Amino acid sequence: MFRETYRSHLTGARTGELATAHGVLRTPAFVAVATRASVKAVEPAGLARVGLQAVIANTYHLHLRPGEDAVAALGGLHGFSGWHGPTMTDSGGFQVFSLGAGKEHGVGKVASIFPGDDDAPRARGASLVKLSEEGAWFRSVVDGAECAFTPESVVTVERKLGADIILPLDECTSPLHDRAYTQAAMERTHRWARRAREAYRLLADDPTFPNPGQELFGIVQGGAYEDLRRESARVIGDMDFAGFAIGGSLGRSKDDMWRVLDWTIPALPSDRPRHLLGIGEIEDIFAAVARGIDTFDCAAPTRMARNGSVFLKGAPRHRIHLRNAAFRTDDRPIDPSCDCPTCAEHSRGYLQHLCRSGELAYYRLATLHNLRFLVRLLDEIRDAVRGERLAALAAEWGTTLG
Amino acid sequence: MFRETYRSHLTGARTGELATAHGVLRTPAFVAVATRASVKAVEPAGLARVGLQAVIANTYHLHLRPGEDAVAALGGLHGFSGWHGPTMTDSGGFQVFSLGAGKEHGVGKVASIFPGDDDAPRARGASLVKLSEEGAWFRSVVDGAECAFTPESVVTVERKLGADIILPLDECTSPLHDRAYTQAAMERTHRWARRAREAYRLLADDPTFPNPGQELFGIVQGGAYEDLRRESARVIGDMDFAGFAIGGSLGRSKDDMWRVLDWTIPALPSDRPRHLLGIGEIEDIFAAVARGIDTFDCAAPTRMARNGSVFLKGAPRHRIHLRNAAFRTDDRPIDPSCDCPTCAEHSRGYLQHLCRSGELAYYRLATLHNLRFLVRLLDEIRDAVRGERLAALAAEWGTTLG
After folding, report:
1. Which are the contacts of A349, defined by CB distance < 8 A and separation ≥ 6?
2. Which pTM does this prediction carry?
3. Is B117 tagged catalytic?
4. What number is the ipTM of this complex?
5. Domains of chain B (ranges plus CATH)?
6. A81 CB near a chain B CB, below 8 Å?
7. Which of residues 327-366 of B touch A (CB under 8 A)?
């Protein structure tokens, strides 16, 4: 399903084509987060209009509402949502983390370095998850009902949801977990991966599911420990998954993140695609692509848009905050060089007014811009990889390859 | 600015063309409510796509935020919002009512017959408005600051906002006001209308304002009292306004509403357009058009959409409620005969999921459908007026001409 179209001589970067049952992803590619089968504030036609290539929905949330049977009855995720391009589903493993240890530890995937920029709950509290060898028991955030996830049940749910690429149940550990816990969790995740692979094989030929072309990826865990990451990449890499995702704790700093990728990627089969879960800051994108990441997802660009923070190359952190009083009568678009529908039609002054007034039209306009910005950034990055100019492009963006 | 293109022999209905500085409105026409220069949840390009002809913004709300000077600096309402079609601004008179007597009396414009379907506050409370001969004093709902509106200041604010059609400050009385109060308020509204007319004349040739083609309409008041309505129509009708709006209390029943129109419209100059403020239920539209109303605005269709209630001809009250469990796996669009972007792409089942999940994408999709529905209904109505089939069309819609 994956074809490498160019491999850099200077870095670990590559370009490729990831063929799915719903079209080909040109990689490296940004995958937008559509937790409940909707990228927040933007309808699928709008996603297509800004050139977005793929979305990732969440198995846990869709299982709770509307339920996988309802999604399947409406044609699977594609028929259900009207998004006709490539899709992925995350497994619920991140929810095992964020409702469990993330809540107990009060941290996200990377401890304390991105305050407000990830999905982890900020307030500490008791875990809402119980884990055993068999699987994970949650309380539903919708109605409080108990809800069990096993590696097998998650694959069944995902077969019904019908995404093009599905991920097995894993345990995403916290940066504050110690080595012993991280190792035990990793080993359980490996056993779960084998069970998921078997369940997937048994269901693979069942024509009742909405997407026969669906592929299962494996997830590498191991926290920020070198030997564990190398072992996890080797074990998961040997299981003949169609591709691989890198999940779990990425340590306590950006440098820790890059090291995790440096340990992991060389140990994975190079003919398969590599997805980095939940990372998408601009400097992260350059560093991850330079290490051979093909796809990545992140909720931050869309969440930032909703909070008033929109991308502008060259501004501090390549963002401006629309609530800033300086923009009140600014008649320029967010980015005069942007070709998104928002920049074509609306000024910073009007967007500030909509944002400050809480007008619903604001959220879509700001989100379309941030999505278009990332789509164009990845277009530039693919060109730079093929032209062996990735480091120069990173420098142009005020960052490095890490 | 108004040209009657057909006058019915059978009813008071007519078709016409209302020429503004930003295009021609084919009448009868629905005007969407864009209180803060945004139809809730839909960007201006989306409004154009569903064929909407005009919007009405609110002087009071835009004065408070972002302020008329900010709007003027960004090119007036058209440049500011990116909506390039005809616009109106209401004067703030309705806020005099809803923050004042409406709050004291706990009622809307029509007492108790449309629970939940108008903008009046439901809870009774102390008035937040003080009225005098000079004007009205409000507390800002944004920051609590005191804010004075006089007939002259409102015209100045509206000149800066730059809508194509502006309305003078008036006092919208409550259905629970007695005859003496209603008469005194009407007479003051007449004096305010004269002051507004004079202020408008003094500012008409000032090139610093963003819309030199702006026209001032008069507002008829008089509550549900026949002699007062006839007097107000005569007095306001004699003041050489470019058109007329019918405001204020419309009584306690639909029959009261029709009677108010029956008293008012024949007393107005027939060569000028007639706008009905704040009314837009389907049966109201037929009855109002049959009496000679050319344009009308109503927030209900867009608010209903946000609450899950979407139009479907033939359903009870021509609406279905998307939260209804029966739609969970319904793969049909809201209306299979509808040509809106929502019905082209999305099923009732998906829309229910978005609505129940509070997904932001829901609000735009539902609102686009309800707007398109009204645009097409008014297309049908104009055809029916020209074909002398308005009563038959009303019957087809399960209603009458009232």
Report:
1. A327, A328, A329, A330, A331, B66, B70, B73, B74, B80
2. 0.95
3. no
4. 0.95
5. 2-298 (3.20.20.105), 307-392 (no CATH)
6. yes
7. 328-329, 331, 341, 345-347, 349-350, 352-354, 356-357, 359-365
